[in-house]
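Thread: zinc ion complex, take 2
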Amino acid sequence: MKHMTQTFVSLAAFLFASFAIAGTQNHKAHVHGMGKLTIALETEKDGSVALDIPAESFLGFEHPAKTASEKKTMKDAFDKFKNNLNSVVQFDPGLGCAFSDAKIEFERPEPGAAETGHADLNASYSVHCAKELQGSSFHVPLMNLFPRIKQISVQIITQTGQTENKVSHAEETLKF
Ligand SMILES: [Zn+2]
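Output below.
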């Protein structure tokens, strides 16, 4: 049983690595207002949440922050994300989920993509719940937290498979 869990964690890590590469290659193709969210269940009670959002939809600009005002905008947005993880993905409150390892960073454009001027923000955190996540429902209130985001493509990876969903308002219910 322990071996199976480890195998699954490796698979999830592999999938994340694949997405990371795909994300970099698709850099130029991002559409303002559209974000990508990946939720992977690594065990029955543990998961990861990863976000890939156009910087424009998160900050209002896509260049590295230069002025004091831009640096403040970026710090405020990063703090808002880290302090409101329960409003990024809202898991069933009855599951007793806790969050850790929140990270968010400005992805500087690749040299070949620099002429487009586009940049994404990458963010992630870990989820640990007291009860099993499989079969539970959740919402994605991220669009309320950052209203420039109008649509989110949600990839759900569980031990039984993988689905892709589009969410365009925060109250839509998705299920593991
Ligand atoms: Zn852009």
